[in-house]
Amino acid sequence: MKSCPTCQRRYIDSEATCPLDDAELRPSPGETPPSLGKELGAYRLVCLLGEGGMGNIYVARHTSLNRYVAVKVLRRELASKKEAVSRFFQEANTINRLHHPNIVESIDLVEDVVDGAYCVLELLRGPDLKTRLNQDEIPTALVLSIGAQIADALGAVHALGIVHRDLKPENLILVKGEVVKLIDFGVAQIGQQGGALGTAAYMAPEQAAGRPVDGRADVYSLGVLLFEMITGRHPFASETDAEYLVRHAEETPPRPGKLAPRCPPALEACILRCLEKDPKDRYPDAATVAKVLRAVDPNARTSRGGAGKVVAGLVIIAAAAAGAFYVATHRPGETANATPAPAAAPVVVAKEPATAPAPAAPSTPAVVSIDVVSTPAGAKAYRLGETVPLGTTPFTVDLPRSDTPIEIRFELAGYEPKEVQVPIAASMQIDVTLARMAQKPTVAVDHKNVTAPDKPKASKVQREGVMDPFAP
C-alpha cells in the first residue's frame, strides 16, 4: 500500500505518482481498501476517491493507455433495486447529454453481469469548493468568476429541461483553482415533478416542501453559494436539516454587505434576488444570473442610497392622441431646464431633491439604484421582454450600470399600461403617473320608436364555438 504525501489518499503498490497532484507516492502501512486493484473492463481501480449513497468513486487507470479516469460503481446491494439502477443510469445519461466546459465529461457507461453497473468519467484534478471555503478568503473577483461559471453550467443543464437539485460545494470541483466543474447528477430531475431530494443546507423552499420545481430552485442554491463565498458563512447556519429547512422557508437572509464590507452592492443585490422565497421573485433563469455577475465591478464599494443620486421626475398626463413622454433629470444644485412642449403634449414636472448637495458619486458605478414610484401606487413594473416583475410600486431596484436605457412597462388594473424608457447610467428616482382607461361611450336609445328586428332566416351555418359532429 502507498499514500500521497500531499492529498493523503491511498493507492495500490503498482502506482508511482498521484495522478491528482503529481506527488511521488510513499510506502504506507495499513490494509488495502476494498475493491482496489480490481479490474473493471479495461480499467484498474487504483484509489478510492469517495463513498456515496448510490456508489463509490475511484481513480482508475486504463490498463493499455495508462490514462487516468474516475469510475463511479453502483453499490452491489442496490443492483437488484429497479429504482436505484434507473436513477444511476439516468445520471449517466444526463451527463452524457451535457457537453459544456463547466460540467464533468462522461466517457462510458457499462452494465456487466459480473462487475455490475459503472460509469466512467473524466478525472478532475483539484479541490472541491467546500475545501476551498475552509481555506483562506476567496478574492471577490474569483467569487464572481466562480459564480458566473456555475450559472453557465446551470444554464446548459436547464436548457435540456433538467434541474440539478443538489447544487452544493461538494459537487463543484475547482480545476487549477479557478475553472469550475459541476458534478453529481444523482438527484437531477427532468420536468417539474415534486420531491424533496437534495441537501437541506442549499435547498430552495419550494423544493423542501416537495412542490414541483424548475431551474429557479437551482438559482436559489446558487444564491446560497455566492453568499458563502463572499461572506465566509452560510446565510442560515443551522445545526440540523430540519432547522435549515425552516430558516430557508421563513427567515430573511442578512445583507451580505453588512457581514463582508468588501461585497460590491451589485453582488449583494444579485444574491438577495437569488434568495427570494417565491420563485417568481428570483431571476428567471441562470443565464441572467451569469450576465449580472459578469457586469459587477469587483472593486466597487459604493453604498446604496449614497450621495449624488440623480432624481428624475416622470409625470405622464395622457392626451387624446399622444403617448410620448419626456424625462427631465438634474443634479442637486442645478436648474432643470425643460424643453417647451407643443400643444396637447404630455407635461413634465421635475422634482427638486429634498437633500442638500453632496459629493458626486463615482462617474462609472458598477450598480445603480432606481427608486420607482407611480401614481396611483400598486402598479407592477416589468422589464420589457421579462415576465417576472421588477417590483410593485413604490420600490427600489438595483441594476448593473449601463449607458443604454432600459424599457419598463407599468401595469395596473383600470389604468392604461405604459412603457417608459429609463436611463440606468446613474442612480435616480422615476415618478410615473398612469391614466385611467377610457370608458366606452354610451348611446341614448329612443325606446318609443324602437321596432322589432326582422326575424332572421333559418341558416344551416353552425354557430361559432359550437360543433355538431353529426351535422351534414
Overall description:
This protein has 472 residues and is an alpha+beta fold. A hairpin with a 3-residue loop joins strand 8 (106-112) and strand 9 (116-122). The chain is elongated, with a radius of gyration of 30 Å. It has helices at residues 82-97, 129-133, 140-159, 205-208, 215-231, 241-250, 256-259, 265-274, 286-294, and strands at 2-3, 10-11, 26-27, 39-40, 43-51, 55-62, 68-74, 106-112, 116-122, 162-163, 172-175, 179-182, 189-190, 311-313, 328-330, 367-375, 380-383, 391-392, 395-400, 402-411, 418-424, 428-433. It has a 6-stranded antiparallel beta sheet, covered by helices on one side. The chain has a 4-stranded antiparallel beta sheet with strand order 18-17-20-21, with no helix packed on it. Helix 3 packs antiparallel against helix 5 (215-231), helix 3 (140-159) runs antiparallel to helix 9 (286-294) and helix 5 (215-231) packs across helix 8. The model is unreliable at 302-363 and 458-472 (pLDDT under 50). The chain starts with a strand and ends in a 39-residue tail after the last strand.
TL;DR of this structure?
With 472 residues, the chain is an alpha+beta fold. The chain contains nine helices and 22 strands.
